[in-house]
Amino acid sequence: MNDVLTANGFEIERGVPRNKLNDYIKAGNLVYAGLQFNPPDGKVTHNTLITGITSDGQYIFNDPYYGANTTLPGVKWKMIGYEVIIPPGI
Comparing C-alpha atoms, which of 46, 44, 47, 53 is closest to residue 71? Predict the structure, then answer.
């Protein structure tokens, strides 16, 4: 995936400090995130895009399972990894 993005002018930032992540999102960047869910029958990992932040600080996801513009209500998750995707011209 990274090769396709960089070939089309996107930049990939790794190692962004967690406390700076919200600044990147508010600036219009996407975050490719790996999440871990803990359902009763064990741990599940899941990949998704963070596309924004609500006024109360929740991440907004564009998720292949839960849909677009969702905050994953009722789902307990932990971010286990991420990469910031910076579109061309930002």
Answer: 53
What type of residue is 61? F
pLDDT in tens, 61-78: 999 888 999 998 877 888
Whole-model pTM: value is: 0.84
Half-sphere exposure of 76 (CA within 13 A, CB side): 5
Could you give the 3-state DSSP secondary structure of residue 3?
Answer: helix
The H or E element that residue 83 is part of is strand 77-86
Pairing between β-strand 59-63 and β-strand 44-53 as defined by DSSP bridges:
antiparallel
Residue-range definition of the domain harbouring residue 77: 2-86
